[in-house]
Automatic annotation (TrEMBL), chains A, B, C, D:
InterPro entries: Homeodomain-like_sf (IPR009057), HTH-type_TetR-like_transc_reg (IPR050109), HTH_TetR (IPR001647), Tet_transcr_reg_TetR-rel_C_sf (IPR036271). Keywords: DNA-binding, Transcription, Transcription regulation. This is TetR/AcrR family transcriptional regulator. Residues 34-53 bind DNA. The keyword Endoplasmic reticulum does not apply. Residues 11-71 form the HTH tetR-type domain.
Length: 209, 209, 209, 209
DNA sequence: TATGAATGAGAATTCATTCAT
DNA sequence: AATGAATGAATTCTCATTCAT
């Protein structure tokens, strides 16, 4: 693997290889991907692959890193979002479902890789931690505002309800559980809101009469 | 692989191999297990393996079948359980957590195998379906009794809340999220109960007024 | 590589592979030999090779061991040899030349391998040590009998004169220095004998008056 | 590789590469040296290497040539040396030991390379020939002066005794045979002198009456 | 002259599976 | 039923060398 800083051409080749690898992993799964597949897709010889990556695993490592980064970025509810708690939860759930739709296969591959290689486990842990903290902070705020059940442990609750959304995304998008997006988001949000004892405010878009 | 029915000795050898395979898969993961490992553990030669199983995959198929069966059996709340809805949910959650603790690695392996082989997908689907149906039936009954929000789709809700428990089991037991069992079961149950709008009955052990 | 003790058939295959490897190394040198060459020569598939040997290096290790053993055995002057010191030296020199003729290429390969792998260095050291000790013991005996210069260090002298023979064997047999065997043995022996100040006994076959 | 004569800058780069190659070969051995290592050491890029050398082998060829030249030059007993035959032999032995100490690894590499490539064989032959001729001429002169056994074949004797020194140098310096330089030179010289029947002259520094 | 990206021939090794005994 | 020797497809990775810039 190359060490020195790359020229423009080198950077391009590396990026091509990375993209090709991502596609290949997504399509065929880690085991089924051969270095030569990636190279063919990228249009370079397999010697070139080793100019930029140490091994198939190293390539996957970079793909995983990218995917995890995207997952997190994609599911962040902007600060501009409505101040209404219910609406924020709803927006977060919708975003997560969509982010998952775009990356589910790869994320599951990272999860599997984590079984064998702690490096991937750490990557996943960081991602999960970010989500959990985000959820726990949100809940804590609601509790402080008297809008949510103060007896719930914020972290544990965030882990559980976040897990509900994550797991549903998997079941829905990967395992083919049938549901419309609107229905799915609605149910997830209602369950979440009610679970934490969210007190509807006047602007709430909750289930109505 | 032989077809005719087995002698007693044959049955024993087969069972030994199956147990050895299960242990090996559990310890090292699918890819890392070599047929030789299994045979060494079972104390038979390579050739013998193929007397009883068509392939490594076939062995794993049987292991998976067994695990899935155990998972389902282990997590069924007996009919003798208290009639109190909250208590039933609590019992189910506790049982599921424990069943998962006993089988998580193998279940995850089955999940991963399902990515590549639809046969395992089907197996998993059956398991999930049984859980979902059980959960949905329970909810429907509560709705009919006027004890749960009637506007919730029973199946979708069961998928989501069941997923919450399943996912938490994974996070807690495999990924090391710290929590005590009592706390975990309590939170899962409270979140679940409140999410479906479970109206406390007089015998409820819920958090009270 | 196989661990359990081999059946007759297994032993035969292993021996065939070992012989094939020895020939291949002898003919083409370590680097140029491919595992497949050895297998083709032995008439087995290359998978079979790995049933019996861990690697090309391991195979070479066994070949080296064998060659070194043969070298030592082949150059031992039997105790039955004439008691005449000069004749014994002469016999040893002749035997060494012949042993070298049979194994020079492989011995040189071991020498080269020793540069990279201390294991081979040790092997060679043992061989050399045996030769040196044999030579030193012989000289010491002659010194004690008053037949050789007592001021010479037996070990150092044995190393030097033994080296003379070893090196000449190489130059003569490998590098093509022209000489007849009789002449070669004669000169080596006369130089050796005179170098240690060997006093001719009455039965000496030395160069006469 | 370029053909036209080099600019000053070109010469410098070439020399740097040659020196880097020599060091690299000396440290790691032929096989283990990658062109990249040499280039990194020389501070130039891969491509540049091929501006000056046709191949790795060509580089080694030049290194070998240089080493062999140095070996010969370094071990020549100047004409100014004492006219005493014993002293001349002693001086030559000491010089040879020292020259070998400086170059043993590379010389052995050349020897090994000679097994596969006759070009290196020829190089070595020339070196050896020069030594042998020098030794044979010396012996012939002594024989003519009546100072050495006239029945010895000068060339054969030179090959053998020269080999004794060369081989001892290897054993002592590369294989770790323990001896002090003075002892080593003393023994080599005494054995050599007595082997050829060198008659001490009055000025001899030999071991006395 | 120098650079460094690209090439691809080449070899080692693993392990599920078959089959003769 | 059991054995274990034999098979060979499959894949990774290295590094000397070429060549466009």
């Amino acid at each position: 693997m190359i060490v020195r800083s790359l020229t423009l051409r080198g950077k391009r080749t590396r990026a091509t290889l990375l993209a090709a690898g991502r596609e290949a992993f997504e399509e065929h799964g880690y085991d089924a991907v051969r270095i030569d597949d990636v190279c063919a897709r990228a249009g370079v010889s397999h010697g070139t692959f080793y100019t930029y990556f140490d091994s198939k695993e190293a390539l996957f490592g970079e793909v995983a890193q990218a995917v995890v980064g995207e997952m997190f970025a994609a599911s962040a509810v902007g600060p501009a979002a409505s101040g209404d708690p219910y609406a924020r939860i709803e927006a977060a759930n919708r975003l997560y479902l969509r982010a998952w739709a775009a990356n589910s296969r790869l994320v599951r591959m990272v999860e599997h890789a984590a079984d064998a290689d702690p490096r991937f486990g750490r990557l996943l842990l960081e991602l999960r931690e970010a989500f959990v903290r985000r959820g726990a902070d949100g809940l804590r705020r609601l509790q402080e505002q008297g809008l949510a059940d103060p007896s719930l442990d914020p972290r544990l609750t965030a882990v559980m309800l976040g897990g509900m959304v994550e797991h549903f995304a998997h079941v829905w998008l990967d395992l083919g559980e049938r549901a419309g997006e609107q229905d799915a988001v609605d149910h997830l949000t209602r369950l979440w809101a009610r679970a934490i004892g969210l007190t509807p405010t006047s602007t709430s878009s909750q289930e109505g009469p």
